[in-house]
Amino acid sequence: MSVRLADVIEVLDQAYPPRLAESWDSVGLVCGDPADVVDSVTVAVDATAAVVDEVPEGGLLLAHHPLLLRGVDTVAASTPKGALVHRLIRSGRSLFTAHTNADSASPGSPTRWRRRWV
After folding, report:
1. What does pTM read for this prediction?
2. Which residue positions form the known binding site for a divalent metal cation?
3. CA-only gyration radius of the chain, Å
4. Which pLDDT belongs to residue 94?
């Protein structure tokens, strides 16, 4: 079953309210079009190249640790993080992070949720 990314974001924001994030943290949608359809959700601790390769085209990567935090002022494809963002966008994949907001929420971080239910 496919759902809009906006609907998935709504559920994630209810489970992991952005208001619970520390002031220094970066949470929420990193890349992706909320109007797009999402066919799958892949949960990971970090958004790495190897993890992105595992996300099906048109899928959402729910990462615990933010890809873009402090000190990032470009997503040029010539930088490691920029290259990853470009790969995600070109392949129709989306990235959403839930970090300190997930740590503070119940049922906790997506990685703990995954360990408990998978």
Report:
1. 0.87
2. 64-65, 103
3. 13
4. 97
